[in-house]
């Protein structure tokens, strides 16, 4: 026996670790299942977290800044999916340690947890005040990281300038050609 003193109360502790019989209900189920699995030779390897790799252009990354609580962050802009949409772009902030440059130096990439969410912000014009200045309000929404990937990579589905150029070349190539005969106006005689 051993005495333990806590303030004015005395507690007696009886140490009988080896003499005590354990009952089946004393051990939690998950411990019992783990012991059985280890006895049969199963290895417990932690599952690797599923991640989403998002690739985007260097021009979408802003300058690093220090937040109010002292963390270094960087703002990433998300272009509007519709090229006719003239609203300000949505953006989110993330640690610059999570944003990496690709091997060619022209693009950027980052990995986010697949089951996570990201908070997007967009400035919205709510009206004009008495002085004629626009009143801006920030609108927030939460987006799943898989949807964030599709938003950031939406520029890949847009028609590119080169695609439009090839269409114009085909249109010009299929048009009938009318050639005017060349006439010489400057006769040089020797």
Give structural notes.
Strand 9 (117-128) and strand 10 (134-144) form a beta hairpin. It is built from 3 helices and 10 strands. Helices cover 17% and strands 36% of the residues. Residues 1-19 have low confidence and may be disordered. It is of the alpha+beta class and 190 residues long. The chain has a 3-stranded antiparallel β-sheet, covered by helices on one side. The protein has a 3-stranded antiparallel β-sheet with strand order 4-5-6, with no helix packed on it. A two-stranded antiparallel sheet has the order 1-2. The radius of gyration is 34 Å and the shape is elongated.
Q: What characteristics describe this protein?
A:
single chain, 190 residues, alpha+beta, three-stranded antiparallel sheet, 3 helices, 17% helix, elongated, disordered N terminus
What's the structural blueprint in terms of helices and strands?
Blueprint: E1 2-6, E2 9-13, H1 29-39, E3 51-57, E4 61-66, E5 72-78, E6 90-94, E7 99-101, E8 107-113, E9 117-128, E10 134-144, H2 145-152, H3 161-174
Antiparallel strand pairs: 1-2, 3-8, 4-5, 5-6, 7-8, 9-10
Ends apart, CA distance between termini: 133 Å
Helix proportion = 10-25%
What would the average pLDDT be, to the nearest integer?
A: 78
Largest sheet: 3 strands, antiparallel
Number of helices: 3
DSSP summary, beta strand count: 10
What's the alpha carbon Rg, rounded to whole Å?
A: 34 Å
What structural class do the secondary elements suggest?
A: alpha+beta
Low-confidence stretches at least 5 residues in length (pLDDT < 50)?
1-19
Order of helices and strands: EEHEEEEEEEEHH
Sum up the overall morphology in one term.
elongated
Widest β-sheet, arrangement of strands: 3-8-7
Strand content: 35-45%
């Amino acid at each position: 026996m051993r005495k333990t003193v806590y303030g004015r109360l005395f507690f007696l502790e009886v140490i009988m670790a080896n003499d005590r019989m354990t009952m089946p209900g004393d051990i939690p189920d998950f411990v019992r299942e783990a012991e059985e699995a280890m006895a049969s030779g199963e290895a417990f390897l932690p599952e690797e977290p599923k991640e989403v790799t998002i690739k985007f252009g260097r021009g979408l990354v802003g300058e690093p800044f220090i937040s109010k609580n002292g963390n270094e962050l960087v703002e990433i802009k998300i272009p509007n999916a519709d090229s006719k949409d003239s609203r300000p772009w949505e953006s989110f902030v993330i640690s610059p340690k999570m944003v990496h440059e690709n091997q060619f130096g022209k693009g950027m990439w980052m990995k986010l947890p697949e089951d996570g969410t990201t908070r997007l912000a967009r400035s919205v014009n709510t009206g004009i005040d008495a002085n004629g200045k626009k009143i801006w309000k920030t609108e927030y929404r939460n987006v799943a990281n898989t949807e964030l990937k599709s938003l950031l990579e939406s520029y890949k589905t847009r028609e590119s300038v080169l695609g439009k150029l090839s269409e114009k070349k085909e249109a010009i190539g299929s048009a009938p050609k009318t050639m005017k005969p060349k006439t010489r106006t400057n006769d040089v005689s020797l």
